[in-house]
Amino acid sequence: MRNTGPNLDDGLEVLLDHCQSNVPFYRAITPTKGGSNERGIIRLKSLPTVSKGYIRDHYIDFVSNGLVGAHQLEDIIQSHRAPGADVSVELDNGRRIVVESTTGSTGCPFVMLKTPQERLALGANLWHLRRQITPDLLASDMCLSTHQRASKGPVTRLHFLDDGFTAEFLQHMVEGGYRWWHTTPRIMRRFAEVAENIQLARRWRIEVIESGSQYLTEEDRHRFSAVYGAKVVNNYGAHEVWTIAYECTLQRLHVNLPHVFVEVLDGDQECRPGAFGEIVVTCSELRLMPFVRYRTGDHGKLLPDCCPCGRVTPTIQLLPDRFDQTIAGHPGLIGKEVFSSVLNNLPTGAYTSAEVREVGVREYEMTVYDLRWNRENFEARVRANLFDLLRAKAQMTFIYKRDDPVSLRKNYLYRSMKNLPPAAILT
Question: In this predicted model, what pLDDT tens digit does every residue of 362-389 receive, in sequence order?
Fold first, then answer.
């Protein structure tokens, strides 16, 4: 098992030289290239780790000089704080960059910048990993969880989590003849009942479901494979750096070397192989906005043994929850009191009533009646309140309903509450 090698060291050398010359944060602290024992990984490990919060508070220090001016950078950051589709932006110098935005699961907006060439490199790497499973896979064979790519026409955004997975959309996937589906465990779980009801597995051509963004349990893997009649593979990654590790045929996650270098740290100390810690990543492909020793917020461990599949890249095992060690100290927080506090911290009159229920491992669904706020602001405030209370990440899906008579609504919510797990609140 190798977590290093000449290709990785060479890639890190180029990245660190670039950071030293062009990225303000790293200009004064990146060690100068030395002899054969002072290059690559050794240089990298002398640098501090950085978090999403720190980068968000110091964007200008983490973007390469010479491409985006300070004033235009501030405009880009401010105008794309709300999460949405990736956007191509023309700069003052005529060049183009792609702005990616996400809330993650904390509700804290985060903006990432990449060049089109960087995205092409990341995409080419991902397709190489996919084609190790299905060698003849084409882009037209792929259906995504938040975007649907058809063989004809543009990419169209689909609001899965607003309206649920309907039988009509399942029929569309059947008629489209897709072979791969990139989605999340939450979406697969949400849509499983519909898929079972229409006996989906007997009718569509999906061969592989690529699970990303969230932790995939073995129980979910077996259930989804049976419901959807497809092989389920795990793609562990983050929007910031794309694929961090990808699953082999033996269902073990292999680090995506040499594109990503993974460390597992306990605080600032490197964990021994086999010990759990926080996963810290460095992506050797990114220059415009490098992610160097970036703390993902995920926890896991590098496995000390070699994978029987024959690949020599290291493998990792993930813990189910982000900030798992913090949450373990507050076992009573996941419940009614959490959502009482979250909702009580919202301004009076933001909505008439709300219902929250737990639908998975720290995954929640909130039904809001007669919302009077802007939806994006409301959702960001709820997620931020939840994160502030738990000090951990949680997934929240929002459903909006209107025009129900108050008496009927209260009766409906009361009946619903009887069958809900403890993580529910009625206001």
Answer: 677 778 877 877 777 777 777 777 766 6
